[in-house]
């Protein structure tokens, strides 16, 4: 087993990993930028190393600084969390070259599944249902236009190196294709340094349902059932739940089997997520695979009582999977609490938290790195907490979430708490009748909640 793990991340996920490491008797090293010196992950780690100034390209994305921090603290493993370098094959390879275990996917696996075009080809070879799409990357706009006409509108342009909704454009008519092609490539080049594009048939009003998988070094994999991530704004998830209210036992088995087939076909090692789009007829199509832990992993942990970070560490240490295919016994919902103003187009709201009161009680979990008096830096993702409720039924989990949101007080900044309060009362959400287009047709109540 590892003696010391460096967490190459920040915020709530860094603190989440530190907690599991402590329970396993493993020493931890936090890295931080100058902007994060007062974050809780820095306070609770056994050691902490400043790796640079606030901009992420000079700190959390600076591979040389992170490797140096691991070497001076004698860390024998690095956990990347999610985001930043979690799916960076170069980082995974450099860790390998320095005899530091990367607790995540291998460089080859990241390259194979991180590039969306090659991932789609791999999944087709594995026999996993895929959305009809272009045969690899589009060469130029002429190829783009020809492919779209053959496929038929509507279509979806996607950046092969994309993530977080960047480089994606839905195109309903031919006359909009050129502008979408140009803007998607520009956005992808700026965000990822790669303007490669491919095309898929656009599935109208789908559900976004993902399957959590874990694989070990023997080639064995299992799934931990599904998460419904369909409540999104501009392809950014806002809330998630498991089990999905759209799911049937038959569909759960089919999608779980497909996800395990995908993981075992590529001999995937570690925790990963196979993401699918599901149409209104419950046909499902592979969308992408995330070769890392997901933001929404806590709801899976809650419904099957399973520590995914612990399993990641055990698998990385060469211990075979202890798990099997799991199915949810409870219902769990996660609301992402962002430092954003939902009444002002979700504009970021960094600043000092002057007062914070966290909810509690049976079935309530909060993952956060902030506290009263903490100043949220403007340099990073705006998520500051995840509020998770778990109960015997979906109705009870929603009632518990309403109560927990009412108790959750964060003053000094704007947050998405009022948005989630209203969402929990929306008739379509209560009925489980929502798709990825939900946010396009709903406007929040104009009366601000203070």
Q: Strands, helices and their partners?
A:
Blueprint: E1 4-7, H1 11-23, E2 27-33, H2 40-44, E3 47-52, H3 63-72, E4 77-79, H4 89-97, E5 101-102, H5 107-114, H6 116-126, H7 141-151, E6 155-159, E7 168-171, H8 177-192, E8 197-201, E9 207-215, E10 221-233, E11 236-242, H9 249-265, E12 270-278, E13 284-290, H10 297-304, H11 308-316, E14 331-338, E15 340-341, E16 347-348, E17 351-352, E18 355-357, E19 364-368, E20 375-376, E21 383-391, H12 394-407, E22 409-411, H13 417-423, H14 427-430, H15 438-441
Parallel strand pairs: 1-2, 1-4, 2-3, 4-5
Antiparallel strand pairs: 6-7, 6-8, 9-10, 9-12, 10-11, 11-14, 12-13, 14-21, 15-16, 17-20, 18-22, 19-21
Helix pairs in contact: 4-5, 12-13
Describe the structure.
The chain is an alpha+beta fold. It has three domains: 4-103, Rossmann fold; 132-201, Dna Ligase, domain 1 (2-Layer Sandwich); 207-441, D-amino Acid Aminotransferase, Chain A, domain 1 (2-Layer Sandwich), CATH 3.30.470.20. Helix content is 32%, strand content 26%. The chain contains 15 helices and 22 strands. The chain has helices spanning 11-23, 40-44, 63-72, 89-97, 107-114, 116-126, 141-151, 177-192, 249-265, 297-304, 308-316, 394-407, 417-423, 427-430, 438-441; strands spanning 4-7, 27-33, 47-52, 77-79, 101-102, 155-159, 168-171, 197-201, 207-215, 221-233, 236-242, 270-278, 284-290, 331-338, 340-341, 347-348, 351-352, 355-357, 364-368, 375-376, 383-391, 409-411. It has an eight-stranded antiparallel β-sheet with strand order 13-12-9-10-11-14-21-19, with helices on both faces. A five-stranded parallel β-sheet has the order 3-2-1-4-5. A hairpin with a 5-residue loop joins strand 12 (270-278) and strand 13 (284-290). Helix 4 (89-97) packs antiparallel against helix 5 and helix 12 runs antiparallel to helix 13. The mean pLDDT is 94.
